[in-house]
Design goal:
It is elongated and about 60 Å long. The chain has 2 domains: 55 residues, no CATH class; 119 residues, no CATH class. It is built from 10 helices and 2 strands; from the N terminus they run ααααβααβαααα. By secondary structure, it is mainly α. The model has no long low-confidence stretch (mean pLDDT 88). It has a two-stranded antiparallel ribbon. 24% of the residues are buried. It starts with a helix and ends with a helix. The longest helix has 18 residues.
């Protein structure tokens, strides 16, 4: 049942205007309840319930691929990425929005989930604010090193360990590598 809920939330299945004749409060609930009624006393009908979404929504997946990440519910994806822990955090661009815009990077790439991490408010609005990621990580821009456990930081935020991907000049490489790590983490959630 939990996997069904997670797939549903990652795909924004309960939001309006997501599909063909789809209204989660009417058609969605009616179809879900029909299947649940037929399944009384039987194993949870995850396949049938997921098929409702696959039949009616513009996009619904249970196979989390790097190229589909930006179609998912960002808030719930962060919840899963950060091990289902609720914390007050700022959504931060790994490579700063202003620096990427100066380089002519399109907004879709700048605001891709692969370029976002959750940071505590003090770090994001203080030492990290608008610094290229490699400069901040290495403490060379403002003279402050705010990451004492670099390996742990990179692992926790699913940022590739390869230092060349941390450079703003290699932003596309960061997006590709990090999207793979995020997709792997989301997919691993459902291997139980």
């Amino acid at each position: 049942m939990r996997d069904w809920v997670f797939h549903s939330l990652l795909n924004s299945a309960f939001k309006s205007s997501r599909g063909f004749g789809w209204n989660p409060n009417t058609t969605g609930i009616a179809r879900i309840l029909e299947i649940m009624e037929r399944a009384k006393g039987k194993p949870f009908p995850i396949g049938e319930l997921l098929q409702i979404f696959k039949n009616h929504l513009h996009f619904f997946t249970t196979d989390y691929r790097p190229e589909d990440l930006d179609k998912l519910d960002r808030d719930f994806a962060f919840y899963v990425i950060y091990d289902c822990q609720r914390q007050i955090r700022d959504v931060d661009h790994i490579q700063p929005k202003s620096r990427l815009a100066e380089r002519g990077v399109v907004p879709e790439k700048i605001n891709s989930i692969a370029n976002f991490q959750l940071l505590d408010l003090r770090t994001n609005r203080g030492s990290k604010n608008d610094d290229p990621f490699d400069k901040w990580l290495n403490g060379s821009s403002k003279g402050e090193l705010n990451v004492s456990d670099r390996v742990g930081f990179l692992e926790r935020h699913l940022i590739p360990a390869d230092p060349t991907t941390h450079e703003i000049e290699h932003f596309d490489d960061l997006l590709v590598a990090r999207a793979k790590l995020i997709a792997k983490k989301l997919s691993a959630r459902f291997q139980s």
